[in-house]
Design brief:
single chain, mainly beta, rod-shaped
């Protein structure tokens, strides 16, 4: 069960109470008896670890960073075929 922190608006007395989720929030201060007890909200220390919690985890392989170049141990330069030139656009006959 979670622990909730309260503070009285009248006497400023802090209070920590262990309550279940289904219980109603407290409103009456046990110190002064006023109906001015308020919940104190703060940051929660939650850390999500693992796949699926980061923005880049849901991206496909095409939009991710390029893999690092690999090096080979042999000293001969690799021969890669040159890229073929793009085909020329068909010419349209001009009307004369």
């Amino acid at each position: 069960m979670p622990t909730y922190q309260y503070v009285c608006s009248s006497c400023e007395t802090p209070l920590e109470v262990v309550q279940s989720f289904s219980e109603d929030a407290l409103t009456k201060c046990p110190t002064c008896g006023d109906e001015t007890l308020k919940k104190v909200y703060g940051s929660v220390g939650v850390v999500f670890k693992g796949a699926g919690f980061y923005r880049n985890d849901s991206r496909g392989a095409a939009s991710s960073a390029a893999p690092a170049a690999t090096t080979t141990s042999d000293s001969t330069p690799s021969t890669t075929p040159a890229a073929a030139p793009a085909p020329a656009a068909p010419s349209t006959p001009s009307a004369s």
